[in-house]
Amino acid sequence: MSFPKHLFKNNLLSVGVALATLYPAGIVLAQDAVQENSPNNVEEVVVLGIRNSVMQSIDTKRNASSVVDAITATDIGKLPDATIADSLQRVPGIQITRTGGEGTGVNIRGNSNVTTTLNGEQMLAAGSITTVSPNFADIPSTMVSGIEVFKSAEAKNVVSGLAGTINLKTNRPFLLEDGFTAVGKVEAIQGALGEETDGSYSGFFGYNNDDKFGASLNLSYGTSYLADYWNGSQGGNAGRWSGWRNLASEETGYVANNVDVNGDGDSNDVYYTFEGHQAANRFIDRERTGINGSMQYQINDAFQLTGDVFYTKLDEHIYMQAFVAEQSWQSIIGWANPDEGATEAYDNIIHRNGEAITLPGNLYTMSSALWQTRLAKTQNQTTATDKESTNTNLELSFDNGGPLTGKLRWLHGEAVDDSANSTVDSTLTDGSQINDKYRPANGDESWANPWGYGSFNALLPNGTEVDGTAIQVPIHIAYSGGKQHWTLPSSNLPITNADGTTSTVNETFGSNLDRYSAKSSNLTGTYSNADMDVLRLDTSYAFDSPLLNTFTSIDVGARYSERNVEKNGWIGGVLRTNEYGDAFVARWKDTVSPAPVTGESYIDPISFTELNELGMIKGISDFYGTTGLGTVYFIDPKAMDNPIAWHEKMYGPHMLVADAANVYDLQDQTTSFYLQGNLETEVFGKALRGNLGLRYIDTEYTITQSVAGSAASTVINGESYLLGPGMVASVGESITTINSYDELLPAVNLSMDLTDEQVLRFAFTKTIGTHDTDSLGGGLNVNRTNSCNITRPNGGPVACANSGSQIGNPALLPNLQYNAELSYEWYLNDSSMVSLGMFWVQGLTQIENTRIYRSDIADDDGQVRGYNPETGQFTGVVPIDSIISSDEKGDATHGVEFGYKQSLDFLPGFWSGFGVDANFTYSPSEGSDQDYYGETMPGINNSEYQSNFALWYEQDGIQARIAHNYRSKMYLGRTLQGDYQFAYFQKPTNYVDASISYEFIENMTVALQVTNLTQEHQEYYNQWESNVDASFYNERRTSLSLQVKY
Q1: Torsion, CA 476, CA 479, CA 485, CA 489, rounded to 10
Q2: What does the pLDDT read at residue 12?
């Protein structure tokens, strides 16, 4: 099966509305705090300045019917926020994750099951087509006029997340002053570690004709080139999962058996070692385009028509160039000789059948060692991503001044997220270390890289050479002071001469371009797209006198939505013929990979000398956070901007073959109804207001998963091809599952005015949340390794299946939980307040990771062996990790939020311009994972403590702010290695941002802004802080902007 890239479909209505409307909000700096609750209760508000933005946020919170925090456009614009997530980090209870230093992901109180809405209704975001967690990388902060964070749901909020809802608000023309309004902004941004100067441009044009007709257009365009240096273990995705690692026993893991590594008189200890180390020069290149707008028409005194469009586009390239020293999955996993004083000892604990068992000896981690490298390489990786989304809204509202009001809405959304990834491994070692040989159909065999460095004898931990074991190159690597340190060999390096003789050279390892060979490459990608339609009716009836002396109005509504998600994962296969003339398709373009049936190599060695003549090679010495490498050489990753085209240029014709584990279709049909009573009464002489309600949700998922066939060949475009190395079988069949459920969800939100300035709130809701579509529709992924020492008849290696994961389970139950909150708010004045809230969460659904053992998973030669790399044994079964759900209660969690906003305008003179905005969140949680010691771990992506502190100043046309964000260690999941399990964490972080602006001429403002002032970096570790897994290093970014208003 092959398929073309999906083309983005422009809906006719989207185009029509876009041409008629379109509008920018963030720079107009206006917000209607009650826009969604009462569509005709519109007040013209122009928010200018930090102080007024604080007042708007306080006003929104004070008048809300539920637990809400808000940010106005001035908040967003006054700090140098590149994305919505950067702005949200200042809200109590919000925690964000970063890529390239920019905020992208968001959770509320440690739970990432958060729904994003646009003007109160569901939106399709290109960054989260297949996930429930918001990803705002593609949305510039100038696209919105305000953000609301709902931590408790009202019954009429039929679209809400398990943990809460983030509502993005856009400005509409009837919010503008009469007449024409225009704003333009230009910005230049420079990173401290990058060489490129980025630009950002935005413009707003709006017209309001006395609230009878209005239209507006917002345009936003910007580029960013973000430093994202990365070092540590090889093979992981730091921030999501750990790098590859091994656990080497003194008994069997070293070049000789029963090696006493630490000299304690026994051989019962185990050593935690990386499979490989890397130091990466990594940059993220983003180009964002945004258009949003609105058109409003007052048809008569009763009816108003509104049309909105919200369009975003993100073109992103991630360029990574990494120097790697690795063990290459060989059976001798004890490849490190630790330095004296560089190890830490722990009890040797394994987990079997849910029980922690302490074994004899100790488990050791190490921070500094001589690593006996089996494969040294430079790795190029280019990931090209194209994300595009359009969301449209057509809305007819009714309000004739009578008791009945209503609104009818139709929304349509489309989104695309396409990506292609190219990886090229270029080796410096010649292949003798791992017996990697190039075996042409005609001609003599050679090492995989005939120009590379040869081998040294292996060393015992005490430094003694083992004769006859020329399998390694000694490279020293250490981790200290938040950095990675390399020492490369530079004398008596063995090489093979052109005439076949051997000799030695004195040169720093990796410094000679002529020693490199582009040995192996891989091309993969995913095409994802989704569309959505929503029809919704909301009505409200206000009673002439309170019903039962309590209820002032009643809200009733109905909603139907349909969402379709299609994901097509693919593998780029090169088309070749074997020695017999049989056509085959292969994933791995590797000089040692054998053609099917005949076994000869089908990729010739490619020297860097040759590629340098073509202008493809680049020398790099810039590895921030790393020392000791000097200049090493890479294929220029920008040459692979179009990964598919580059692979076809280098290797010939390719086909994009469907990867059954990542191919599925999902349809989500949901019908909702709600009934809500809004109340105003008195209790004990105190004013009580709020709402009581029920919402009913009926959801049906139709999930079609793909299953890989079992044949040794596949048919592509009517032609039959043998399956070459790494290529998956074509989709054999499809399985369709229907998963339906319905729930009745109560919601209670009450506010009591203790005094005119003090409010006590209580909220109780039952919430529901779905799963990532991958968790419902994904298939089976199998990991294979060459370390099993099984060879083909021609001597080539067999890749043995050793583990895997069953990504999707279409029968998963929905996530359900109870949420309760009690909060106290003291409004000191219009621009100052104190709040203290306590929250409680009770999970009603348990989602568990489980492991099954399958006896039907074959190695890449078709034989079932079940290789266990820890023991070196063949068990006949392969462990597969999967997920299951049950309707059992989890442990209840609770937490506290504290907020303080204080304008110091009561102080004299200069000091009256200052203000403080601070908050603190304590959000403990309990998940289902256990760590190394069997202790229960918190929820994924949760930090127990978070604080924000901002000091601001506004006076005489000057506005300034410095803001600090602290986040305690964040739990990211378990790292499993055989019977061992380690908790994977990110260390605590501190981010400081600052800005200053001056209106030097009326309506003309210049601003200087700095993000990540201290160049904080992100460090990840497994179980113990000293056991560093990886680090990311991001840059300080400085921007200078000019804004002009009319």
Answers
A1: 0
A2: 35
